[in-house]
Design goal:
By secondary structure, this protein is an alpha/beta fold. It is 38% helix and 21% strand. The structure holds 2-aminohexanedioic acid.
């Protein structure tokens, strides 16, 4: 990273900034870059640029719009290692996972570029003779996207690529903790030849920049991934303005381990989905619902597997668990350990902030396992966003489903079993937007809808072809070629 001070990207220019804040590597505490704390005026400028650009962009045939995304995908592929290293530096996730995240963005680029030649609508018979009927997708205009620090490039691609291929222009506010991926992606858009103003990046806080996006009357869609509290406020404001809003606000995801499960596989699935990314995924497993018959054996094997989790700077070879994003995140995890103990859950492993040696300057937390938790405990209900998992014992399949569904969130769930009947019942009864069988709760693929039910969202989906529904309006078109006025529902022969 050569640049030490970032700027906003508005109307194809790198501009502005009067106040900046430092971005630190969560693994080492070293300052990486200074990011602008923009004022509302920067949002107004970006929206005006986007509005101008969108009018022309909407008229570019979608397959040509898609050509830019193919170039974006190719450039991301060329720069994959560079991007992955920067991602590990700003976010802390281990390099292997950073590579996975960048790959998710590359996949999304090629997948959405393909949509440039689909964007399917429907033709359907009309009820009157000599009349043609069809539906098609139309772009909405200027969209605002607000993305989190935990997947700073993948989530941005889930939102911006469908928006762009569908003919919208974007104003993007990335998380202040992880601005480098936004900066790099903007540079890639520039290099790929995206017309100026179609994609704009405004750095700054949610309170100022995010708020200005949500309130701006020329922004017709907000797509947000972040906390439940902020999401609800955004939805309320968008409701007042009749602005379309798509929300993804986390999870309290569970793995169910039945008495016939392949226990070693279940252990691997839990270790990967609970402690990978230090538990800082919306999809992270934070509850394990275990059948009583295998609870003890499962605990023993899980504890053994957890010993292999090496913690440290994700740029170093052999590290499996990286740091927590910042001090506030670390303190939140610490608070939940106390809450869990006070509620009567039994701490089996971990539970501490790591200090000393190479840990002192970063924000590291031990992979932590609670057992004998009950479904109503706060550690089994609230999103912790750290490497903490709680075992909840159950007596039956029915109870497992009840516990799984007994939270306010509904993002991802998983079941380990060999019984095909149980598999299909689980698929039907688990109330989350994503269900895994014999795999952990993470690892969604970009061509399927990503999102959840209940407190996780508001019915929309990121990624998959469904993402296009967020960024397009349906238009119904009727062409009457009878040469006379035909009245629907009235001039129909009985
Ligand atoms: C997130 O945690 O917000 O399914 C996104 C997964 C990743 C994306 C996670 N593909 O775990």
């Amino acid at each position: 990273m050569e640049e030490k001070i970032l700027q906003n990207y508005i109307a194809g220019e790198w501009v502005g900034g009067s106040e900046w804040t430092a971005v630190y590597n969560p693994a080492t505490g070293a300052e990486i870059v200074q990011v602008p704390l923009s004022e509302k005026a920067a949002v107004a400028e970006a929206v005006a640029a986007a509005k101008r650009a969108q009018k022309k962009w909407a008229l570019v045939p979608a397959p040509q719009r898609a050509e830019i995304l193919y170039r974006v995908g190719s450039l991301m592929k060329e720069k994959k290692e560079h991007l992955s290293r920067l991602l590990t530096m700003e976010n802390g996730k281990v390099l292997e996972e950073a590579r996975g995240e960048v790959q998710e963005g590359i996949d999304m680029a090629f997948y959405m570029a393909g949509e440039g030649r689909r964007l399917f609508g429907q033709t359907t018979p009309a009820e009157l003779p000599d009349k043609f009927a069809m539906s098609e997708r139309a772009p909405i205009g200027v969209v605002g996207i607000i993305t989190p620090w935990n997947f700073p490039i993948a989530i941005a691609t889930w939102k911006s690529f469908p928006a762009i291929v569908a003919g919208n222009a974007v104003v993007w506010k990335p998380a202040t903790e992880t601005p480098i991926m936004a900066y790099e992606l903007a540079k890639i858009f520039e290099e790929a030849g995206l017309p100026e103003g179609v994609m704009n990046v405004v750095f700054g806080t949610g309170g100022t920049v995010g708020d200005a996006l949500v309130h701006h009357e020329d922004i017709r869609v907000i797509s947000f991934t972040g906390s439940n509290e902020v999401g609800r406020n955004i939805a309320a404001e968008c409701g007042r303005q009749l602005k379309k809003v798509s929300l993804e606000m986390g999870g309290k995801n569970a793995v169910i381990v039945m008495d016939d499960a392949d226990l070693d596989l279940a252990v691997e699935g839990v270790v990967w989905s609970a402690f990978g990314t230090s538990g800082q995924r919306c999809t992270a497993c934070s509850r394990v619902i275990v059948h009583k018959a295998v609870k003890e054996e499962f605990e023993t094997r899980l504890l053994e597997a957890m010993k292999g989790l090496t913690i440290g700077d994700g740029l170093e070879e052999g590290i499996k668990v990286g740091p927590i994003i910042n001090k506030a995140g670390l303190e939140k995890v610490e608070r939940y350990i106390e809450i869990g103990k006070n509620e009567g859950a039994k701490l089996l492993a971990g539970g501490h902030v790591l200090t000393g040696n190479s840990y002192t300057k970063g924000h590291y937390f031990e992979p932590t396992l609670f057992t004998d938790a009950t479904s109503s405990m706060r550690i089994a209900q609230e999103e912790i966003f750290g490497p903490v998992v709680s075992i909840i014992p159950v007596k039956s399949f029915a109870e497992a489903i009840e516990v799984n569904n007994g939270v306010t969130y509904g993002l991802s769930s998983s079941i380990f079993t060999q019984d095909v009947n149980q598999v299909f019942r689980a698929k039907r009864d688990l109330d989350t937007g994503i269900v895994y069988v014999n795999a952990g709760t993470t690892g969604a693929e970009i061509h399927l809808p990503f999102g959840g039910t209940k407190g996780t969202g508001n019915g929309h989906r990121d990624s998959g072809v469904q993402a296009l529904d967020v960024f397009t309006e349906w238009k119904a078109v009727y062409v009457d070629y009878s040469g006379k006025l035909q009245r629907a529902q009235i001039d129909v022969e009985e």
